[in-house]
């Protein structure tokens, strides 16, 4: 199976590991001349919490999720790294339940591979709080590379 499109699904917690995520994606995309889609899904509550900080005054119903994603960390840093590497990329945003929106995004962009970050959680935390990464991995329409950073949000 050829890899033409790699979806890098990120969230605000990925800011501290953006360089490592970019390197992981570049290891896949560069030699294959694959396009990278930087995907950032967020809930309405998340949007309401950050919309003023990123310069948007529109209500969640009136926004373009792609524009919001382009302004939300770590997307600008990742875009700059892919630009410097000469890798074709685009930015996609989605508003709604994060795991299902990321899976929908993978289908929409016809992703051949996904890269998602995660954090260490105890089994009890996963049972109570759920795991967005786990839901994505279980529902993904393509193979997923899981990037686990033990130092993030322990």
Main traits of this protein?
single chain; 154 residues; alpha/beta; Rossmann fold; five-stranded parallel β-sheet; 7 helices; 21% strand; globular
Structure report:
It holds the Pfam family Usp. Belongs to the universal stress protein A family. InterPro entries: Rossmann-like_a/b/a_fold, Universal_stress_UspA, UspA. This is UspA domain-containing protein. With 154 residues, the chain is an alpha/beta fold. 35% of the residues are buried. It has one domain: Rossmann fold (3-Layer(aba) Sandwich), CATH 3.40.50.620. Helix 1 runs parallel beside helix 4 and helix 5 packs parallel to helix 7. Strands 3-2-1-4-5 form a 5-stranded parallel beta sheet, with helices on both faces.
Outline of the structure:
The chain has 7 helices and 5 strands.
Task: Itemize the secondary structure elements and their pairings.
Elements lengths: L4 E6 L7 H15 L2 E8 L1 H7 L14 H7 L3 H11 L3 E7 L2 H11 L4 E6 L4 H7 L2 H8 L4 E5 L6
Parallel strand pairs: 1-2, 1-4, 2-3, 4-5
Helix pairs in contact: 1-4, 5-7
Main β-sheet description: 5 strands, parallel
Query: How far apart are the termini?
Result: 36 Å
The overall pLDDT average reads 86
The CATH topology is what?
Rossmann fold
Gross morphology is globular
CATH class: Alpha Beta
The helix-strand sequence is EHEHHHEHEHHE
Low-confidence stretches: 124-129
The neighbouring-strand order within the major sheet is 3-2-1-4-5
Radius of gyration: 15 Å
SS element count, helices = 7
Determine the strand fraction and express it as a percent band. Answer: 15-25%
Structural class: alpha/beta
Domain UspA: 4-146
Pfam family, one: Usp
Family: Belongs to the universal stress protein A family.
InterPro entries: Rossmann-like_a/b/a_fold (IPR014729), Universal_stress_UspA (IPR006015), UspA (IPR006016)
């Amino acid at each position: 199976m050829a890899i033409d499109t790699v979806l890098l699904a990120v969230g605000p917690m990925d800011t501290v590991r953006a360089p490592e995520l970019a390197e992981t994606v570049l290891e896949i995309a560069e030699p294959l001349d694959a396009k990278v889609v930087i995907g950032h899904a967020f809930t309405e509550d998340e949007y309401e919490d950050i919309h003023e900080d990123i310069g948007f005054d529109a209500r969640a119903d009136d926004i373009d999720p792609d524009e919001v994603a382009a302004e939300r960390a770590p997307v600008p840093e990742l875009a700059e790294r892919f630009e410097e590497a000469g890798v074709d990329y685009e930015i996609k945003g989605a508003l709604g339940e994060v795991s299902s929106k990321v899976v929908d995004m993978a289908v929409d962009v016809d992703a051949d591979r996904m890269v998602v970050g995660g954090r260490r959680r105890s089994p009890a935390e996963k049972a109570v709080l759920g795991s967005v990464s786990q839901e994505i991995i279980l529902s993904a329409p393509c193979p997923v590379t899981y990037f686990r950073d033990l130092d993030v949000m322990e």
